[in-house]
Amino acid sequence: MSREEFGRRVFLSGVAASTVGLVALTAGQSFDALASLNLFAPRVKGEGPQGLPVNRTAAQAGVTTSAADPGWRLEVRGLGATRAYDRDALAALPQTESVLPIACVEGWSTTARWRGVRLRDLLAEVGASRTATIRLESLQARGAYRTTTMPAHYAWDPLTLVALEVNGEPLNLDHGHPARIIAPGRPGVLQTKWLARIEELPA
């Protein structure tokens, strides 16, 4: 083996070892068995309000007052009808429980038991089309994800909820109280917290 070939192999082995080590030292944010090795990851599995990590707190989003306001209403708009619900009205509707993960763009993921109203039930109340894109709006006044859109196949999925509870408790303010979206297969940044409006978009 030439000196150049030997050097290349040593270099590649070093890169591989470093990669494995970094994965091991950050995977604790997603896997219980590796939690003790979680030295560099930004979140720790099981830590945070209600045992779930938080990327953006209510204070950082500037919603501590508006999200706790007793006068909060969730507005649901179809092209032909609009309904508004306070939290008690949402809680009085049929509730569904979904066990779903949150997968964050930072690399961590965790699974929780969510309970709330099926989004498709609220959309049906305002006559929304089953093929329409849905826009979700947060109480946040600014930020890249203050509004997001949801394709119809997510919006009408029976597991997609306007969640009011997580792991058997009312949502903590940092997890989206008074209501948030939780849907299967969507990145965490698109699981809109502190919901203010749900709206059917024109085709």
From TrEMBL:
Gene3D superfamilies: Oxidoreductase, molybdopterin-binding domain (3.90.420.10). It comes from the Bacteria. InterPro entries: Mopterin_OxRdtase_euk (IPR008335), OxRdtase_Mopterin-bd_dom (IPR000572), OxRdtase_Mopterin-bd_sf (IPR036374), TAT_signal (IPR006311). Residues 70-199 form the Oxidoreductase molybdopterin-binding domain. This is Molybdopterin-dependent oxidoreductase. It comes from Microbacterium insulae. The lineage of its organism: Bacteria, Bacillati, Actinomycetota, Actinomycetes, Micrococcales.
